[in-house]
Amino acid sequence: MALQFESYDGGNFMGNLYMNMLVGTAAEALEAGDFNEVDRNIERRIGNAFFKAQRYQYAIKKYEDAIKHFDGTDIAVYNNIAMCYYKLGQTEDASNNFDKCRTKCIKALVIGQQHGAQKKDISKAMARIGMCYECEKDYEKAIEWFEKSVAEHPDKHVSINLAKLKKQHQK
């Protein structure tokens, strides 16, 4: 059975978001008595569905709702919000959205360092900052952030992009 819900603009948007997407996580959390975990994961998964449907503003809203349901130490949610702003920056109001992306990435970095986040999540935030600078054609800063990202946690795609940028834009 599909879960139906109304989008924020009043239309039926996500008619085929399947209930089983939520059941596993919800059942485990309910069994443990952790209702906050249920709320957080539902909000995050709905945000993921909006992201996949390229409805980035709605995804941001759901990810921000997820943040309200926990103590704010999961940098993956901040990374998800940052990616939404990055995607919006590629289509509209680039400068403002890239600034918002970088702000969320910096927030992710601070939280990650304070709470011992995984290196790959910290690296992901650094890479996204570099991606914004690359789109803005600030190649020096892009290279700087990609280097930080690879130093934190090597990633094949970031390394390839870094090598390409260095070859094309370093003096």
From TrEMBL:
<dbReference type="InterPro" id="IPR019734">
    <property type="entry name" value="TPR_rpt"/>
</dbReference>
<dbReference type="InterPro" id="IPR050754">
    <property type="entry name" value="FKBP4/5/8-like"/>
</dbReference>
<dbReference type="Pfam" id="PF07719">
    <property type="entry name" value="TPR_2"/>
</dbReference>
<keyword id="KW-0677">Repeat</keyword>
<protein>
    <submittedName>
        <fullName>Oidioi.mRNA.OKI2018_I69.XSR.g16432.t1.cds</fullName>
    </submittedName>
</protein>
<dbReference type="Pfam" id="PF13181">
    <property type="entry name" value="TPR_8"/>
</dbReference>
<dbReference type="InterPro" id="IPR013105">
    <property type="entry name" value="TPR_2"/>
</dbReference>
<feature type="repeat" description="TPR">
    <location>
        <begin position="123"/>
        <end position="156"/>
    </location>
</feature>
<keyword id="KW-0802">TPR repeat</keyword>
<dbReference type="InterPro" id="IPR011990">
    <property type="entry name" value="TPR-like_helical_dom_sf"/>
</dbReference>
<keyword id="KW-0597">Phosphoprotein</keyword>
